[in-house]
Amino acid sequence: MPRFFGGCDVGSTTGKAVILREDTVVGTALIPSQIDPEATAREALEQAVKNVADLHGLDSLTYLVGTGYGRNEVPFANENISEITCHGVGAHHCDPAVRTVVDIGGQDVKAIGLNDDGSVQEFVMNDKCAAGTGRFFEAMARIFQMDLDAFSSLSLKAKKVIPITAQCSVFAETEVISLISKRNNPPEEIAAGIQTAVAKRVFSLTRRVGVRPKLVISGGCAKNRGLAAVLSRILNSEISTLSVDAQLIGALGAAIIARRRAVSSG
Hints:
Nucleotidyltransferase, domain 5, 266 residues, 9 strands, 5-stranded mixed sheet
């Protein structure tokens, strides 16, 4: 009989789940987070398992690992592990050559340096300010009256950058609204200023762990094409593409650790 292993990443804005059949990904889910982390975890996992043959509900999982900010509120998981560890394991699984992971999530930013085996060598994080996180970009997209996907590519059209000087996310919103109200400021150049300001923040964090290739971005903001382009230039490093949806990397790492735990315990 095949064995199944689960990883569930309960984030501040999204819930993610990955199901492995032995070492193959057979089910995934990505949903908006609910107020209750346990409810988020259950819904994500139920969506991930419902179309997996031979898997009959969550109770059929051999081992389940929870991760993310809400991981301690998932009582049905066999174990809860830091998202820093899980993002490292997930990124290393996708490409064993990865040595630097920048995880830009809904409410924080983490820079993670990896050892050759995918374990965490060093990490730093910024969870004190919303500027540069997914929630910040959601606010910026609302100001520009477009969805996140459209906003993420807007700055790529800019011929120059209009700087954003505010360091606080609240003041940055006020500054952006003021800039937009001036007719001679092209929206794409304001967007380029936003992406550049965030990239500089990420750079100051990442250089503390050192930028070693390969470098990847995980988390929802990895899909922000404008940010990735600016960050690659500022870091002077190519950003490699992950073979799995960047938002699922933490859940993937959790599922891989679940498999390891089950194997080691016999």
